Amino acid sequence: MQRWNPESRTFVSYTPEKRKYPLLNNELRQQLQKIEPSSDGMMKYFPCMVVLSTGKQFDRVYLAEADSYIKIWGVWPDDDQGKRFIRVEDVASIHPSPYRLPSQLAQKMYKAGESGMGYCVFTLEFRDGFAQAYLCGNAIDFVSLPAGKTMADVIDLIPHKGRNGQQMQKLDYWWCFFSMEQK
Q1: Which of 88, 99, 116, 170 is least surrounded, with the fewest CB atoms within 10 Å of its CB?
Q2: What is the residue range of 145's domain?
């Protein structure tokens, strides 16, 4: 696999090493079960908010099973300048995120697939008739909203619509990995 090295401005060989992440404890597993996952057909993402043992809160986090993540994404977040990472060992609690798109709408985009190589374009429609186009990577659950709008105002997502309009971007998010129990 090749990945871009911004320092040398060239593509370099990259092979992700095998990593082992901890299992979720019972309390975190129960909290995670309350988060409806998104799925792109190849893996499940759990878009949520987490509170760390230090009390620090992160509102936009994807919890994911580590082996599924690396098979799809191909590079660990701490090896990729464009990604952010939180250690699952530091997570004290998991909650729904107020910045998450309604899951049934995010699923429409995941089901439709990429709009182009490595990106998604879509338009959100709001209760008052307003529409806003977005340009995101392949993780689309966390987007900024126009002033005065909340996620409760979003009524539909139209995949691949909005290429020629003024596009808003996704919000920054973090990855957090866990392992599945071995059977």
Answers
A1: 116
A2: 103-169
Classify strands 167-169 and 131-136 as parallel, antiparallel or unpaired.
parallel
Cβ contact 176:50 at 8 Å: yes
Specify the DSSP class assigned to residue 114.
-
Do 63 and 83 lie in a common domain? yes
What span, in angstroms and rounded, lies between the C-alpha atoms of 115 and 92?
37
Number of separate helices (H) and strands (E) present in the chain? 3, 11
**61 and 87 together in one domain:** yes
Query: Is 11 inside a domain boundary?
Result: no
Quote the pTM value: 0.88
pLDDT tens, position by position, 81-118 = 889 999 999 999 999 999 999 999 999 999 999 999 98
Q: How far is 175 from 45, CA to CA, in rounded Å?
A: 10
C-beta of residue 97 within 8 angstroms of C-beta of residue 30: no
Number of Cβ within 10 Å of residue 37's Cβ equals 19
Collapse the DSSP code of 53 into the 3-class scheme (helix H, G, I; strand E, B; otherwise coil) and give the result. coil
* Strand partners of residue 53: none
